[in-house]
Amino acid sequence: MKKLVMVCSMAALLLCSATMALASGTIKIGGLFSVTGPASFLGEPEKKTLEMLVADLNAKGGINGQKLEAVIYDTAGDATKAVQLATKLIRNDKVVAIIGPSTTGESMAVLALTEKEKIPLISCAAGIKITEPVKDRKWTFKTPANDHVAVEKILQYAEKQKQKNLAIMTVTDGFGSSGREQLKAVAAQKGFTIVADETYGPKDTDMTPQLTKIRGSQAQALIVWGTNPGPAIITKNIKQLGIKLPVYMSHGVASKKYIELASPAAAEGIMLPTGKLAIYEVLPKNDPQYKLLKEYDAAYRKAHGVEASTFGGYAYDAFLLVTNAIKTKGATPAQIRDGLEQTQKLVSVSGIFNMSATDHNGLDLSAFEMVRITKGDWALLK
Amino acid sequence: MELSHQLLQYLLSGLSTGAIYALIGIGFSIIYNATGIINFAQGEFVMLGGMMTLFLLEALHLPLWAAVPLAVCIVTLVGLGFERLAIRPLRNASPISLVIITIGGAILIRGLAMLIWDKDTHAIPPFSGDEPIMLAGATLLPQHLWILGITVVLISLNKWFFNHTISGKAMRACSYNPRAAGLVGVDVRRMVLLSFMISAAMGSLAGIIVAPLTMTAYDVGIMLGLKGFCAAIIGGMSSGLSTVIGGLILGVLESMGAGLISSGYKDAIAFIILLLILFIRPQGLFGKPESERV
After folding, report:
1. Same structural domain, A256 and A376
2. pTM for this predicted structure
3. A361: which of A212, A271, A343, B129 is 20 to 30 A away, CA to CA?
4. Would the CB atoms of A205 and B13 count as touching at under 8 Å?
5. Phi, psi at residue B290, to the nearest 5°?
6. Which of B16, B217, B254 sits opposite A229 (nearest CB)?
């Protein structure tokens, strides 16, 4: 008898909570960001951006008359933890889609789960393996452009300058080795010769030996692939050695911080591909992304006192993709997935997204601009 | 580009990096000789030097000539505090516990630096411009001359202190035999405290003079600390010339290795040397098995 009462009351409780959820009409999305730990420079702006956008959307009356709620967890950059938290998001919080994780490693671990559970995952990490092969990634999307887009952008420009012999210098971490692979592959495809292939450690403090070797080679241009502080040190070393080669950097240093670290004098003339957020001030006013980028930067500065970063932009893209899918298709996981895959001409921070059944990233070469550093500022290259 | 010019460039680059390793390495040896432990927080003193100078320059707008000595003083106080709070209360603990405590202290200092300042990398302006100086086909920056100059001055001061002052001689006595030194009236605990202060001061100065070239951040101490440790091992944990030579050898081999063999093996070179020395000549490259270790 006692048991029966308990079961009944449990059932009643469950029913209550279920109807409550329906009545309140909230759409729950999940967020997995590495807010602390080694990748916190990614996760922190992503979390802040998502929170800001959700609050903003709800203040404006929500989406299709429903409020949006973001349940955000910190993965600390740990893949195991990310999977546990993803399970929690799906089982306990009953989210309809997940934004994140911040790094490629975590995304690869989480996507195995979300593919099985049929929950759309919009990763904020760049690794090409996250969305390739697309036939095994039915529920997985990502917002940062593939590394090879940046590589192609550089090589396209180098081709125009008739620089045939290239020296490359890449950092020995995930970003650098992916860049090195892509650089070698695309360079071979386009008929470039790589005459010097040097690497450096992420914590190295002096790269003059590698640069001296490159100076002694037949290179006509140097491509450096890394994130700060390495490229800033290399820039200083290049000036010290008086190397006159044209130098390209990766999109990994596309922020004013790099110019400040390397000093404007040493960074003068360096060329790099960059997403448009970092350089929206020098974009033509009729650029389709201009207005959105300006508003995002202003809102982020107002809320957090620092400039908006490309990384926060990845979460912005994911948010816009999800809300756009909900608006056009509906708020169940399957509807969101279809909506995501059919996204067309969605103007966002990282570029203009055109998804398809064969492309779950949706960005092309137009996501990047080539810029040249001139007097401590960006100048567009045509 | 002739090979001889390249070699000269590798040599100069190696010497200036090696000078920094030497300064950090001497910090390790001084504490080792006074206490018998390896202080793994040495790298954090280096980081604190750079970050503190940056803080004084940017937040308090002090001129460089005032910020540098002040930063060294503050870090010396941190070294003093570290010894009083973390090492002295456990004076009778085994060396292994103390070593673990220094690792804990290092993580704590790094974490605090990250919270107090931030996670970004910062640049400190060079002491006297950044116009390269040509030298027989190779180039140097004025900052390299500062590094080499300050290293020479510090090492001479160090030598003088240990050979010609009462405190220095007392510290050497402690390193030979702490009990005997205590019996003849040397305050061993004070000498241990002093060793932490000197190491912190040297470490911080190394961190400051290298920051204009390599930038600084809350986590630069780990790698620099390890390299300094290698230098000290090559030098057989002596706080004299052999650690300096150890640091220079390490710097030059790294730079030559990166330039002539492959840059991918740069760090591997340092650690292979470390392992070889530990296996084959644990007393250091120049030491005799029972040598003077001050």
Report:
1. yes
2. 0.81
3. A271
4. no
5. -115, 70
6. B217
